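Quick one: co-fold with thymidine-5'-phosphate.
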Amino acid sequence: MPRGLFITLEGLDGSGKTTQIKRLAAWMQKRSLDPVITRQPGGTATGDRIRALLLDSGSTPLASMTEMALMFADRAQAIAEVIEPALAAGRTVLCDRFTDSTEAYQGGGRELGSQRVLDLHRLVCGDLKPDLTLLLLPSLDSSLARARHRNERTVAQTGKDENRFETEQGEFFKRVWEKYKEIATREPNRVVLIEGNLSIDEVHEQIVEAVSERLIATSRIT
Ligand code: TMP
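Sure, here it is.
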């Protein structure tokens, strides 16, 4: 059986990834490609506990190295429990964030540098690489405004506080944004950059175009 396709979505908080992953999954389901959808941090029972620890604004101070190690602990569990079994069974995996997030947020935002993240990735994740990464980069200002608004709503509706990253200052997110751009420039074959303040439909169209191309190239659709 051919191995499944591993597709990741990346971007700043509030870049619209979650909406787009749902729309892409619906588009695939219509074509009888039933994807496995997962997210990081989270996506497994252990990962959800790690996620709560990482995102709760009560978890301060958290050393940058601890934060990076926890991201990789979560990822190792997701690879073993969800991603590898699905790919081995020939399923397409849609993953909301993967190691590019660690490179952008911890490597760039926390200034730990790319090399440390990439070294850890090789060690912990067996260098598993996405076949395709969809990087959503609307302007920094609009992403941040959307993320803050969403968080306030979530706290009001559910009492769940996933706010720790959003309390960071603009300079932090500027470094994250720049690191994402650097990754896209370094790996143009893997990373499809979707830039600018586009509508949900326009972003969806670009995503479908990139995904169709890969699915046709690998004979998964005609
Ligand atoms: P989410 O809200 O898109 O699920 O992301 C959770 C937060 O975790 C988001 O602020 C980005 C951050 N994050 C990192 O800092 N490093 C990582 O490796 C991952 C996967 C997420």
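If it helps, Strands lie at 6-11, 36-39, 93-96, 132-137, 191-195.
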